[in-house]
Amino acid sequence: MVYAMLSIGVLGFIVWSRMVASPLLKQRLNKFAVGLDNLVLWDPLYWKNLHSYIKWAGNLHFYRGLFQWNNLIIKNDIIEDPQRLYANNCYTNFFAVYNAIFSDNIGKRNYPDNIWLGWLIGFIEGDGAILTYKDSLSIVLTQKDSLVLEHIKETLGIGLICHFKGYSRLIIKKNSDIYLMILLLNGNLVLEKRKNQLKIMIDAFNNKNFKYQEWLSYRLSDKLPFISSSPKISLKDSWLSGFTDAEGCFNVHIVKRKEMKIQYNVSLRFILDQKDEEFVLQDIRNLLGFGKVSVRKGKNLRAVFRFSLHSLTASKLIVNYFNEFGLKTTKKFSFEIWTKIYFMLMRKEHLNQEGLKTIRLLRTNMNKYIIANRYVGSKSP
What we know:
This protein folds into two domains: 67-209, Homing endonucleases (Endonuclease I-creI); 239-372, Endonuclease I-creI, CATH 3.10.28. Helix 3 runs parallel beside helix 7, helix 9 packs across helix 10 (331-346) and helix 10 (331-346) runs antiparallel to helix 11 (353-372). It is α+β, with helices and mostly antiparallel strands and 381 residues long. It has a four-stranded antiparallel β-sheet with strand order 6-7-9-8. It has a four-stranded antiparallel β-sheet with strand order 10-11-13-12. It has helices spanning 2-33, 92-101, 114-127, 146-156, 175-185, 192-209, 239-247, 278-288, 312-324, 331-346, 353-372; strands spanning 39-42, 60-63, 66-69, 72-75, 78-79, 128-133, 136-143, 160-164, 167-172, 248-256, 264-275, 292-297, 303-309. Strand 12 and strand 13 (303-309) form a beta hairpin.
């Protein structure tokens, strides 16, 4: 009799949980998830249905497993969701380990936030190299502008800068630093070539560091999975700012036109170059709604694609975007001058000789920064 009553009670609880508790839980989750760009759940019991309630929330980070760092328990092992969309706050794994490593120095040094990290990912995609040679793993940034490399090193607190004639390199190769960068880049890369480089690095990292873990103060709960999905390029995050710092150019085009009032036409140009991967420039063109993508041939016969935007209407989008998500190389000075000329054009000051003279002078000053930012080893901006 007692067992029968207990059985009925257990059965009743299960039915109640299915009919009452589950809808309530779903309702609570839905209310919690509305408007969120990013939602992180930790699933210690491996409830596979749980993610269905919040998959639509924007960006799902789903964790299984733990590892320990100096007695601090940290969530690890991200599971890729096939519906994953890009969100600004998708660096949870990175911050968990970063905070543990630098816990004694937080507040005493520059600290990367989501906007800064988004910029860095775009900058690495455009100007970085994710290198794997046998057991040697490294991420290298090469720049004429050594100050931006100093800024990255100081903010991240990792890497080594080497100076050469005419350029400098930030080299990240310490195993624990590579682990941090993998956590940052994994799932947040746009370019296929960078994703391919990262996949090779993750495979090598897994093979290497499950054999040799003396550099770790913890044991990984499982091998790092490679996340193949790509974020969506957006004007609501800083990826495009970093990519422009690496691959972009602002300039002013002045051509003789007899039909114009003062016989000259002035136009602003925003340019992005990219080898091989036309699709990313097409995505940027579709995002802005203006501009065109053309193909150029490099010296090594590899296709170099160029996105160029000339529209004065679209220039307003560019001005608003980079005012919100600022550039960090000396290109920010080119952009400041470019913006001044934009407002002069909006006020139609280019239609008189005095305004045109001022624009020519501003363009001369801007060209100094364009020359300073030419690619290392390249003769074109």
